[in-house]
Amino acid sequence: MARKKSSFDMLKIDIKRAMLTSEGKTNLEVTAEIQDNELLCLFGHSGAGKTTLLRILAGLTKPDKGRIMFNDTVWFDSEKKINISPQQRNVGYMFQDYALFPNMTVEKNISFAQKEKNKEDVDKLMELFDLEVLKNQHPAKLSGGQKQRVALARALASKPNVLLLDEPLSALDFDMRLALQHEIRKAHELLNTVTCLVSHDLQEVFHLASSVILIKNGTVINQGKPADVFSNKQEYGI
Amino acid sequence: MINQDFTNTLLLTGRLAGWTTAILFVIGFPIAYLLAYKRFWFKPVLEALISMPLVLPPTVLGFYMLVAYSPQNAFGRFLEQHFNTRLAFSFQGVLIASVLFSLPFMIQPLQNGLTSIPKSFRETAYTLGKSEFTTFIRVLIPNMIPSIITAAAMTFAHCIGEFGVVIMVGGNMPGETRVASIAIYDEVQAMNYQAANQYSFILFIISLLILTLVYSINGKKKIFF
Which of A195, A235, B10, B101 has the least C-beta neighbours within 10 A? Predict the structure, then answer.
């Protein structure tokens, strides 16, 4: 069920993009290397540029300048005018609203994501995320936590190179958030590659992330292990 | 008493409305998609042109169509020389004018339907490797069924009531261009109020049924969040 890996995965980012925030115009400037098996958290206040960065990685937003590489493949290079489409990047992107297709059942949502149809894999994913009893339900009848699990299963069904999660737990209550952090870790381990997660919840970062990029008004203030980055909270305005 | 002429006129009216709706269904989707999701410099002009029939007197469009169909002008001459066809005062000529005049009734509901679907649906499909076409067929269309029914129903209902364009381009030729709305006018001119009443009653009922269908569908419209 996990994707086939050919090498040690690495995502290299060096981008710049003009952004309009509540405090006026600013630039999102990020340089980072995300290693294989890393669960990276993009942390910062609302409007800091976390979601924009995630969208840039997915190919949904174009940077003004820079370069993004996944292993030996150039996803974006402003100098060489390369900008490969989201379809070619093979990322699993989970939106804040989960974006489950209302016309499809849980099972169809997951199987739609597959590049080659394989019912066995769909069944395994539904078993892994405890969705078997919901397989014939439509998204409108699911709770927030159930939707999150379906969205995770769907993101994994395409066997993506990189898993991108935009505030996956923000729409849930505290107890549900705790329970579903486990599901995110499970998804990351199953995928066995790079996962980027947007969050502004410190507890979530310490529980899930192996590394963190702290962004403020588009600028990376610090990056590293969560304990190191947040050793002086006041300094970073948290 | 229902005579053959009455039946033929109503069938012709249905045929014109049916063909107009079918043709607009095919050309309406790509145009609505362009207007909903793409950015291009002449988009405001295109939107304005499509909406013109909402504000323009039908006789204006009818007049320009007649001018275009004339063999003295390029389009009409081209048709006559290459296809031996004259569109003025023919069913085909009325059909083309009807398609143009009904554009906003098809395109605006489709465009509204497309823009009401959350952007994240499309973007999710793209990140899952699906092309724009697959996303359109598998994700967008199934989630805008009420808009599609509204567009088709409104176009059909509008065509049934069309008068100005038809009389300008097609005149009043029984079996060819004489649709129900023109027959009503004709019967009133001839002081044949009973026949006018029969046509009017049928148009009234059909329009009422179609609009009731539209409002009942929109009342049950799915809300995503």
Answer: A235
Instruction: Measure the CA–CA gap between B158 and B33, rounded to whole angstroms.
Output: 22
pLDDT digits (tens, 9 = 90+) for B160-200: 988 999 999 998 888 888 999 999 999 999 999 999 999 99
Nearest to A152 by CA among A201, A113, A103: A113
Of A58, A99, A160, the CB nearest to B118: A99
Q: What are the extents of the domains in chain B? A: 4-38+51-219
A60/B143 touch (CB, cutoff 8 Å), yes or no? no
Report yes or no: A215 and A229 within 8 Å, Cβ to Cβ. Answer: no
Q: Is residue B31 within a helix (H) or strand (E), and if so which, with residue range?
A: helix B4-37
How far apart, in whole angstroms, are the C-alpha atoms of residue B40 and residue B42?
6
Q: Are A32 and A212 in contact (CB under 8 A)?
A: no
Superfamily of domain A10-229: P-loop containing nucleotide triphosphate hydrolases (3.40.50.300)
Q: Output DSSP code: residue A183.
A: H
Contacts of A175 (CB under 8 A, 6+ apart): none
Distance CA A59, CA A49 (A): 15
Residues A157 and B116: their CA atoms lie apart, in Å, by 27
Which of B124, B131, B142 is the closest to A99 by Cβ? Answer: B124
Q: Is the pTM of this model over 0.90?
A: no
Query: Minimal CA–CA distance to B16: which of B92, B69, B111, B81?
Result: B92
Nearest CB among A95, A103, A160 relative to B124 is that of A95
Mutate to test the interface with A, among B120, B123, B127 (most CBs of A within 10 A): B127
Q: What CATH number is given for B4-38+51-219 in this structure? A: 1.10.3720.10
What ranges do the domains of chain A cover?
10-229
Residue contact B129–A92, C-beta within 8 A: no
Residue B124: other Cβ atoms inside 10 A: 31
Residue A64: its H or E element: none
DSSP category for residue B130 = -
